[in-house]
Fold each of these.
Amino acid sequence: MDIQRINPEQRWSDATVFRGIVHFVEVPARVDGDMADQTRQILAQAEHTLALAGSNKARLLMATIYVTDLTLVPAFNEIWDAWLAPGTAPARACIKVELNKPGMLVEIAFVAAAA
Amino acid sequence: MDIQRINPEQRWSDATVFRGIVHFVEVPARVDGDMADQTRQILAQAEHTLALAGSNKARLLMATIYVTDLTLVPAFNEIWDAWLAPGTAPARACIKVELNKPGMLVEIAFVAAAA
Amino acid sequence: MDIQRINPEQRWSDATVFRGIVHFVEVPARVDGDMADQTRQILAQAEHTLALAGSNKARLLMATIYVTDLTLVPAFNEIWDAWLAPGTAPARACIKVELNKPGMLVEIAFVAAAA
């Protein structure tokens, strides 16, 4: 079994899968909304990407959450906590950086188990 | 063999283990001390987490070190260098960001080999 | 098969390889040049490290690109896009942080498939 790539573009692939490990990054498609809106977009997109990779949100291993404003982390966490089924949370880091699109408040890099 | 989670909370797990790969993140439990103190806390906690995951500090693969002040990296490195047995250092990145708790000077995301 | 380390120093290894997964981080050796120059250095070094790990640039799984100035991302992308063969791009995150050496504009953490 070799490398599977989901929607490979020249600059990045939406996800890569190798030996049962999925790497993928989600950014909000629309950045005009608030943290709750952008978080909901990212998590919905993550479910879609996970499905394409033969995985699902109960199989996350690690999440690196990049935010641009630490005061918005509670708004992020409210959506995040409700999204995860009990007992399925990945390891996670949450740090403040600057992101590559004006208005973007959050970006998440995930590692998941495919199967 | 499927996903093992160490201390799964609703928001995160202390570690996940899948196909022999451990993902975990450590932050200092107490943030009133200086960089040396916070680094010692993190590395002691890392040893504890690694033991729970059936691994140890000689089996680290990657460390992403988030610091809030680059002038404190030498203080971090002094503890880090002494902590690692010769020939066992992981790949590592060390970057300055802002962290999600006032007073927290360092946070580390690790990837390790379980067995 | 256990952990292979490429050029293990006391503080870090240039790469680690375990169960076919390579973790490595590249920084520019010389930081007197512009973004294009520093990017070319990093990507050339990445090819060298990948070769030592029994991999190559068509087998990247994930890239975390740390930059110190978001206005230089287009200059980075121009080199990056030309470097990757079509259909081989990894998942990627690109964030602005501060780096641990004055003049350093970019650092990349990679995950790759060894074999």
Note: Residues 35-52 of chain A form the longest helix (18 residues).
Amino acid sequence: MNLDKIYPLVQALGGTPSRRPPWWLMRQAGRYLPEYRALRAQAETFVEFCLTPELAAEATLQPVRRFGMDAAILFSDILLVPYALGQHVGFDGNGPVLDAIGAGDLRRLDNGSLLRLEPVFETVRRCRTRLPTDVALIGFAGAPWTVATYMVEGGPSKDFRNVKEWAYRDPQGFAELIGVIERLTTEFLCAQIEAGVDAVQLFDSWAGALPEREFAQWVIEPTRRIVAAVKQRFAACPVIGFPRGAGALYERYVEETDVDAVSIDTAVPLGFACERLQKRVVVQGNLDPVLLLVGGKAMAAAVREIRRRLGGGAFVFNLGHGVLPQTPPEHVAELARILAEPTDASA
Amino acid sequence: MNLDKIYPLVQALGGTPSRRPPWWLMRQAGRYLPEYRALRAQAETFVEFCLTPELAAEATLQPVRRFGMDAAILFSDILLVPYALGQHVGFDGNGPVLDAIGAGDLRRLDNGSLLRLEPVFETVRRCRTRLPTDVALIGFAGAPWTVATYMVEGGPSKDFRNVKEWAYRDPQGFAELIGVIERLTTEFLCAQIEAGVDAVQLFDSWAGALPEREFAQWVIEPTRRIVAAVKQRFAACPVIGFPRGAGALYERYVEETDVDAVSIDTAVPLGFACERLQKRVVVQGNLDPVLLLVGGKAMAAAVREIRRRLGGGAFVFNLGHGVLPQTPPEHVAELARILAEPTDASA
């Protein structure tokens, strides 16, 4: 474990405000980098790529080498958990494709198979060894609700009809599915920490699809239990939650889950983040990924505004969502320069 | 005009709380009704269907006849405005398909062509004549930001990359596009009111995709100007705004746009709606459409909860989004029965 808090990012996640905000970007490793595209060509399927330590470690390190972020995020995918549970996981041009499951398939899921994810821990070890000591390594997993949406819908969904239908009609059966995902996710995160990650993030990309009651039941509760279980074993490891699209419910999320930091999407107003979230947790976010794609003055103004409004408290700079594949890499370099400006220039 | 407020819905929209909340459902006319599917088969394209008064009026009236809602919503589409501006608008299985426009196409748009929408006003007249006098008729249009997303993306989008890129790179040019949409939308709504609708709703389905600054610029400002222009001509006509997904920004939206009522999506917490929105405007919403599809006890409990939490103030019952095509019509009948219960039973 590397929990001695020598990394600016881990310090920030511990609640220490810093002169210059630490930064990293969701999907900072990925298709917008030519060196990633070359690397990706070396594996046939995306799952195979994620589970080949040599390739996944290199993908993890590429953006840090180029741009000097304060953290690397493990190159992996939130659908590795369904894969480990024995579900078929493929990817086509439109996103992931899974063989959708229903209540009758619960017993067929392979509950204990962290073994299938063993290569991920080898990737973590390789990354930690090769990363500079001032760069943190972030592990992650999908939060149970979001993972369940993919498992039940069989891919992305507009209306989440099937997964919500299950949850509304048969909350006990659905709670079993959430429980299966939750237990493997907890083990998966703990094993990542054991292998060397310095913080973990839970991605709940579809948290915004639920009414408050179900948000409490399927987003907050499983997250709270995972956070508690991880903290019981690794008290000092920061946990970042990202309930994307949660709107006004971000407040309840940070109050009830015990996450150390919250990643906020682009639509979260900075005043709300400062007044209602940052008093309780570290805030991470929230530049519009399209502004990174656009670059120039529009990006610079927005970056400085985010930094001015949130930089006074514990803060990690990030996007509100992942880097878009069409993003020119030189805009990320420009972002790094802006974030390196002394605080006075950002006012 | 029918602005004498004899309709329960219009009374509610005027801020008068009622013993039994008035109700209607977004997409209450549509594919879940067998009589709609039979009617739809009588026109080749969807635009043609919308622009044939005999068919569109019948589609508008069908759900009211079956379920007795307090309002009919004009059967129409938010993409009739791009159609009137001269853009090609088609529909395939995945939704609308438009010939995407960019900055260079602004001059080619036909600014003044409300004539192309003349059949819509005939539909309004037929509906108003045939509707019972205690049933209100609601007209609508897409809000400029949402309409612009379709015009620039050429259809639905996950990341709104093209439309945001234009807005960020060239805010003046993009403001011209918004202005063109805004002017025609204002005229379109006023002509609907003139023809007989009793209230209008502005659908801003993709309001939740924007950071606060751009939300103010492209959602709040055009909406505020449209509301002001409509009110100048029809002071008594209630305007309902629906900035779907606006999260914490719903509050600023109701403070700054001068809408009479706000329609809230499923993710808006009832406490937030009651404390922060309902003090200022009428609140309309927000049952999860999947609960209408599921029906039974889960639906009944959620309906009673919404009514209990919001029924004390000015309130119109609705969904948080449109009726799903897979919804059994008998669940809508069941909803009508629950909403007809005296208030005591709903506690």
Note: Residues 8-346 of chain B form a domain with the TIM Barrel fold (CATH 3.20.20.210).
